[in-house]
Design brief:
mainly alpha; about 100 residues
Amino acid sequence: MSGVPDPAPRPLAQRLGAVLWPSFFAAGVSTMVFFAFIDPLQLRDMTFPDIAISRGVGYSIGFFMFWIATAASSLFTWILLRPASRFNRALPPDN
């Protein structure tokens, strides 16, 4: 061990914000780019033609799908960047 203590864990609100805010931004950009080329009504007609989905609902579904995907990516990155020393401590000796 290097002798440098681990930083204190961040508050939950800060950790959630670090995952959700960048993923919200990325989902917004992804939605704009995707729907600049794809019409939600044509996408509906190719996938679920029997379900009445309006263009606005299609945009909303697309945004939330992008948000879930980018939030999962941000969460995975956050998990990988946690300090290893916090999880690799020696086990207590058996008595």
